[in-house]
Amino acid sequence: MRIPGLELEFDRLPAPLPIWRARVDADAWQVAARAVAAGGGRLVALWGADTGWREAGGFVVCAAYALADGLAWLELPLAADAPAYPDLSAQFPCAVRMQRAAADLLGIVAIGARDTRPWLDHGAWPADRFPLHEQEPEDAAGERRKVIDYPFVRVAGDGVHEIPVGPVHAGIIEPGHFRFSVVGEKVLRLEQRLGYTHKGIEKRFTQLAPLDAHRLAGRVSGDSTVAYAWAYCMALEAAAGCAITPRAGSLRALLLERERVANHLGDLGALGNDAALTFGLAQFSRLREDWLRVSKEVFGHRLMMDSVVPGGTACDVDGAAAQRMRDQCEAALIEVSELRSIYDEHAGLQDRFMGTGHVSAELAAELGLTGLAARASGLAIDLRSDHPWPPYDTLSVTAATHRAGDVAARVAVRFVELFESLRLIRDLLAALPPGEHRSAVSLPAGATFGAGWVEGWRGEVFVALELDGDADGHRIRRCHCHDPSWQNWPVLEHAVIGNIVPDFPLINKSFNLSYSGHDL
Amino acid sequence: MWKILRQIGRTGIRSEAVPAYDDALRVEAERIQRDLLATLGRALAIRHVDAGSCNGCELEIHALDNPYYNLEGLGIRFVASPRHADLLLVTGPVSRNMELALGRTYEATPAPKLVVAVGDCGRDGGIFGTCYATCGGVASVLPVDIVVPGCPPAPIEILRGILTAVRRGRPAQSAPQHPT
């Protein structure tokens, strides 16, 4: 691992993907940001930590960059009296909200940042308290402040008016606020305000035992429970220096691909529905229900929560269960192929899909769009093919890409990925390695780090973990979970510009971003 | 259009009609419909509010709308405004950032109204507990009629919870105090 222009001493973490860690100073922090941006790298995550437990009175800010040869986790120590670091938003616009969140939770600020409005802090806790400070009492509720009147950016001009939506939405979806500035039906600007589902997950991690906390990771965003549990367990196993068996790896991939199929089935139905083809919703929601029922039969949980556990998986798959899943893949392949041709040939549906919510490849790259949505805008980013870790190293996954960048492209990518996941499930089941599905994880004697990086159905999920050693009871000191929605929410604001208000639900659904995974 | 009709024809009516899965559910569904008609004699309108959930419960509430459960066929439907609702279906540990919006949604719902808290988090905060950012279970903010435990509860359990709330029917009462 090397960042051009810098001589950093990277430590490689013992994770199945190439993840490297280094400490930097403020100059190197900025040089690295410029070099990564110039080299086409991505900012995966930015977060802060109170590291008073490992060095006197300190805070750090961390950045995780995705580069051609892996992930670089950079840590910049900050001054205790005035913890501040150079702003990254000039190189990486997606850093803005992450920096605002770090300021709310830790009081560390980005020098030179233009947008310093609170983000996760809606006034629910006292202004002088920072929830992730080490000395903060664990269950501190504190005095609620007056509700903050959030300063939305106003659009002025003849005939411009605002449509405020949320946090309680009209459908069965998560809460968030959208402020549209429109002329007639045309959207001039959308500004999001999120943070409504902030429930203190990162603080909660520090109260749980490392071997139990995969359950919390699996509830950061329920639709990505497998991706998060795997990323957390990968981080824990890297910190502990434990490897999992090949069978455990294959079972985890099986779970992850089943999660991808379940979500794509749900989204394809909902996208048809949002374009007034209720037939699509009925068909795909039926297939999704069939899918979840088999998950319940085989893994004991419809969404496969708590199926990925430290050291492997909670349960094994026997011959009958494997056959059950193979049969289901065959049936799903036939049905989804038929539905795809119906979607493709449906003029009314395609009229709503094509050209709607367009994101060009240039904009996608500039704003750091990631995951499924990025692939639909021509960016071939997929950890399963970029850094194929076991068992993906033997499965030759091809990233499904599309050049159009509109709703139609995001639908098409879902279809292609769905078929690819069905293929992967069949291949995984055909060659399940023998052996145990779970091995023991012994926590490390000394304080240590770990990281996990997994391509969930929505995009890359990243977990950074810091553990105490024996002497301090193996506490989790910091566990940062990063959802790809952080990158993709701001791009949605751009995708709707110039579209009509009634197309917003369709565009929004085509991204299907997580509120909970973002708000933590 | 031909392909759509063919697919519909091939699929058939799946609502509680697949013996491998649905014998038990069919009994349940018929009983639910009888109870609903006896109690309400009209449709039940539900307003869902996510007050901070991980979205797992939302996935299972969505599943209630699939052909297997055929919720609308039972006379139950989700509505877009609390002003149209008889029942609030609330998920999540109530985050402090949603406390106000949840209270206002309750106030906007005409009496008599019912509240069903869904999931382990809706019951008592679940794995998230009560902390600087959450108030815990839904009952810490609203008067709750029924709690459906589970993480997340299966769709049929959510349906059972909704039904149970309806059968218990509660007289109108004054709204609790909320922060403004």
Main sheet makeup of chain A: 5 strands, mixed
> Domains counted in the coordinates of chain B: how many?
1
Q: CATH superfamily membership of the largest domain in chain A, which one? A: Cytochrome-c3 Hydrogenase, chain B
Shape by Cα distribution of chain A? globular
What is the number of helices of chain A?
A: 16
Q: Helices and strands of chain A: which structural class?
A: alpha+beta
Question: How many beta-strand segments of chain B?
Answer: 5
User: What fraction strand of chain B?
Assistant: 5-15%
Mean pLDDT of chain A comes to 93
Strand order of the largest sheet of chain B: 2-1-3-4-5
Could you explain the architecture of this structure?
- The complex is a heterodimer of chains A (520) and B (180).
- Chain A has two domains: 101 residues, NADH:ubiquinone oxidoreductase Nqo5 subunit (Beta Polymerase, domain 2, 2-Layer Sandwich); 276 residues, Cytochrome-c3 Hydrogenase, chain B (Orthogonal Bundle), CATH 1.10.645.
- In chain A, strands 1-2-5-4-3 form a five-stranded mixed beta sheet. Chain A has a three-stranded antiparallel beta sheet with strand order 8-9-10. In chain A, strands 13-14-15 form a three-stranded antiparallel beta sheet.
- Chain A is built from 16 helices and 15 strands.
- By secondary structure, chain A is α+β, with helices and mostly antiparallel strands.
- The two termini of chain A are 31 Å apart.
- Chain B is α/β, with parallel strands linked by helices and 180 residues long.
- Chain B has a single domain, classed as Rossmann fold.
- A five-stranded parallel beta sheet of chain B has the order 2-1-3-4-5, with helices on both faces.
- In chain B, helix 2 runs parallel beside helix 6.
- Chain B is globular and about 55 Å long.
- In chain B, 52% of the residues are buried.
- The C terminus of chain B is likely disordered.
- At the A-B interface, helix 3, helix 7 and helix 8 of A face helix 1, strand 1, helix 3 and helix 4 of B.
